[in-house]
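Posting for a labmate who doesn't have an account.
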Amino acid sequence: MSSIAFIVLGIYTLSLFYITLYCVLQFNLLYFYKKKSNQQLSVEESAPIPGPAIASRQLALAEAGPAQPFSGLDAGLEDEPEVQPWPFVTIQLPVYNELYVMERLIDCITQFDYPKDRFEIQIVDDSTDESVEITRQKVEAYKALGFQIEQIRRPVRQGYKAGALKDAMPFAKGEFIAIFDADFLPKRDFLKKTIPHFKDPSVGVVQTRWEHINEDYSLITQLQALQLNVHFTVEQAGRMRGNYLLQFNGTAGVWRRKTIDDAGGWEADTLTEDLDLSIRAQLKGWKIHFLEDVTSPAELPAEMNSLKSQQFRWMKGGAETAKKMLPTVWRSDLSPWKKIQSTAHLLSSTVFLFVFITGFSSVPLLFYLDDLINMGFSKNFFAWFMAGLLSIIAIYFVANVQATHKNLPFGKSLVRFLKLFPMFLAMSMGLSLHNSVAVIEGWRGKKSPFVRTPKFNIKSGKDSFAKNKYVTAKLSWTTIFEGLLAVYYTGAIAAAIWLQNTTFLFFHLTLAVGFGTIFYYTVRHLKVK
């Protein structure tokens, strides 16, 4: 019996240690985020410390200069009157069956405040439904108005989004490539706010912060916004200010075409082609510049099955990219600390696997605690792991209260945070099984199709996805297991009361609520026809 107790304790402790270590490394990003002001960083502050090979390469880039005149870039950065010519930009819109948002997307992009003769729009359309004809009609209408816009159709949807972007590159005329997913509605001044930052010849990517069109639509969208706000403040800005590797987020950003080519181009061997290319580009010496104050509004998944499909792709793709790129990162000339931070970044999806293991093993551990205590073990040992929880609380507080971009009064932001954060923890734990399956598949190398997240054109509480043709109607084994796990942790709560041992009571309550909520919303939204 004692050996089993120590095995369970070991599994629980090692998993909890992994989670705590990750959270503390995240706190390091918060340190850099808070250390430097939100003012525009100088080139010296934002530049990574290069090794000899990278330094010589950047010097060569600076001496060679850009391929086209950059007078417009200087004007944009200094907020002076526009000076022509602005660099030519290709805007790529990779889409697949986006019936409900195609018209608003095209209308939005054509409203850019940028010289009409200095940009082109490529709609890389792999659709198989009636959205193809809607797009064709829109393209013809805007062509008649003088826009350089094309609908590119591929005979075979090979490589999914990465394949679409790769196949469209030979037709692109721009020195810079702006990319938007179908659910985004970038602001009119997007290009004039981003392109000037390429004045620095070592900048290969400019990424903007995502805003949320439908944040207040439901609890699901509010919790997603809570998490994304962390990524697009503390994580992205913290990595840039700490001179760590960061990432292009797949959309709402601009690439220097030369950077894509130099890094080896788009590759479809992972489900997160954006993260993959980002790492390869930065290891070649290019920089990613993140603009926290330039926003690109987008639609959050409004129903649970869409959210799960997005999470699965992100988590599995993250594991695939980690498996692919970690050996290269550790062979690079990055400093040891930067390699550690890059490893934490690439392994971020793997945290869900350890969250699941920690939660599952805590139930049998509850029954062995008295035996362990009788053998000299102290429950106070677990207090060391509070560092992880406190780190996460601090990070989410800063990102959603102190750094909020909604201009809400501090008191209102604080009350909102206190209401949402406990539920965010619960639902994150509730997604741990689903995301763990994705991570395991990614590390095993099991291939699966790129399942895009359907968009419903939901902007307010008046909108509905009830009759949307893209809603899935399949009940998976993971959903059934999520329901059983809700029962499992509810039983653990009852056992704690019976044993008069409340060590894990709050933890098990959070897990029970989390898995129960995920199960409820998944089944409820499956019934939508």
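Reply:
Got it, the structure tokens are right above this. Residues 2-35 form the longest helix (34 residues).
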